[in-house]
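BUG-241 | component: ligand-complex export | severity: low

The export step for cytidine-5'-diphosphate jobs runs without errors, but we want the raw record kept on the ticket for reference. Input record follows.
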Amino acid sequence: MSSFTNNPEPNLASFVVALDGPAASGKGTLGRQIAEHYRFPYLDTGILYRGVAWLALDTGVQPSDAALTAKIASGFSLDRIKNADVRSPEVTAAASVVAAHKGVREALFDFQRAFAKTPPGADQLRPGAVIDGRDIGTVICPDAPVKLFVTATPEIRARRRWKQLIETNPTIPEADVLHDIKARDARDQGRADAPLKRANDAELIDTSDLGIPAAFAAARPIIDAALERWSAGAAFKQSPA
Ligand code: CDP
């Protein structure tokens, strides 16, 4: 059996499933399911941008302030947002504002890249990770063996997010959620640095008409085929003729 240890190719040190897509497209749910099935650790990179946004709002820094938010990002650690409500609509909107600053993205790059190369808690014989975000397949892990771009119509995404939000805020209108999602899509797709877009080699999964089991069923053969190629490549590299 092939092993992934001692792989001489640093970029091939772990099997990364890169999941990108717009807000509430279902990539988080799908990502967690993939992670559980293949026993890979999971990183939701949105939490990093949400965390920086929460710290900015908490300390009176304007999310539009590129220099101060980059400073917050450079001292960021998940410990600093342990009890923070990073899912509120205010933090959500601010996250996509801070995420447009080059300095913020640069400051968060190393953490994401380190997770991809040496996934914490990964199986040493088959190290891998599932990483979800906006620029994982394009910027953070352009060499990922699996890239999935998960999307759905704005209306369906807004309905899903609204259903989550009314559990804590029962009066929030669905139309407001749709408005916020469209505004965030526009900011995420329109920014100069690492905009949200499908990588050329990413497989598209449109979850507009797919439930969670169907989305997973669409992803699974793609991942299985890539894992097989990966295993064959690793074995070949370790036993030169
Ligand atoms: O959960 P949801 O899809 O609503 O958003 P999220 O993944 O938590 O991301 C929140 C915001 O962070 C996004 O709207 C992006 O602006 C930003 N983000 C990003 O720019 N790059 C990433 N890799 C992840 C999130």
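Assignee comment: Attached the raw record above. The pocket of cytidine-5'-diphosphate is lined by residues 23-24, 28, 45-46, 49-50, 95-96, 99, 133-135, 184, 188 (CB under 6 Å).
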